[in-house]
Amino acid sequence: MAETPNLDLIHPLKLFDIAKNEERFLYTSAPMVRYSKLAFRQTVYAYNTDLCWTPMVLAKEFNRNHFARDSDFTISTNSPQPPTIVQFGANSPQELARASTLVIPFSNGVDLNCGCPQSWACSETLGAALMEKRELVRDMVVETRDHLRRDGWGVGKEKDINNPKGRSVSVKIRVHKDLRRTIDFINTVLGPDQDRHIDWLTIHPRTRSTPSSTPINLEALELLTSTFGDRVPILLSGDVFALNALPFTSPLLAPAPTLTQTLSATTNSSSSTTPSKNPPLPAAYHIPKLAGLMSARALLCNPALYAGHDACPWAAVETFLSNAARAPLPYKLVLHHLSEMCGPGMGPNKAALLNKQVRTGLMACGNMFDLIDFLDGLRELRRDGREQGVVGI
């Protein structure tokens, strides 16, 4: 990374403004360990994702090991480079600031992970463990912004939105069981309104111990966005499975399904021709001050989620493979991506591109050559099936 490529990097806050002017959410892809690599980022970017995150990068190792720098952060210089935020795991202001100075010429901004609940991260005072260290988090983002400013980068937030060297500093958090502690945390990290410490905030409304199978805490999301949404742009991370099945209403959404309809879709219950004796209930929560959405597992299954597809289209598989050929991934990782894309999605539509038997054959491919031959054969079968009126494989 000694030579800076000629990258046209837009300030992320400008992307927020563009989405707001289009009366929609900002669409983002989450930092996923192993999965948020360049080829996948390019794929979701081709399907309306506005802003992509890298997997979490350990700042200390990134600073000290050139192998970590070569493997943990990859960009494209001759094909579409999605607007990218580099997420760091750090517990030291100096380590985060130094790592940020290394990646900032090649990225749109840096983000501090205060949400990873994995035990190894928390034991190192990383991720969600930082939710107990609000002053340390504040010091880390302030030190990072100061270092970037001294290096000549535009970190004045809205003041640098049109600056070619404008970059962002943000934080991704979870919530506490006692939301008063979360409010104290955000107030400390956010700082004064006239010169806040972060450009935006991503909230995952689960606690450190809440499993992902438990729905997000919409009451917490409503409270936190109503408290801070006018002071700083806020992204939601968690349970973004389909644009037509979000569990809340917003002025930036089409009319939401009723709670009765949502529960019916979730449980896959069959529709009844008998009218309900009770009138349908309105959606329980209205979140008017939320600025954007961040998806992880659902986007992994359906990279075209933000393009309005409720299930993964075959074209997204081909787009991913084309990107993986230019930005190679370990073969087992390619297989995992394909198994996710070709299986049932996370939203109400559980249709799969390939049935279980065919997916088993897919996973049995031993290398990229076998895989491409296998998929070429499937492409022919799909074409012949369409010609003969056959649905699916």
TrEMBL record:
BP term (GO), one: mRNA processing
Domain DUS-like FMN-binding: 30-244
SUPFAM superfamilies: FMN-linked oxidoreductases
Assigned keywords, A-Z: Flavoprotein, FMN, mRNA processing, Oxidoreductase, tRNA processing
GO terms for MF: flavin adenine dinucleotide binding; tRNA dihydrouridine synthase activity
Cofactor: FMN
PANTHER family: TRNA-DIHYDROURIDINE SYNTHASE (PTHR11082), TRNA-DIHYDROURIDINE(20A_20B) SYNTHASE [NAD(P)+]-LIKE (PTHR11082:SF31)
Protein name as catalogued: tRNA-dihydrouridine synthase
Organism for this UniProt entry: Corynascus novoguineensis
The organism's taxonomic lineage, starting at the top: Eukaryota, Fungi, Dikarya, Ascomycota, Pezizomycotina
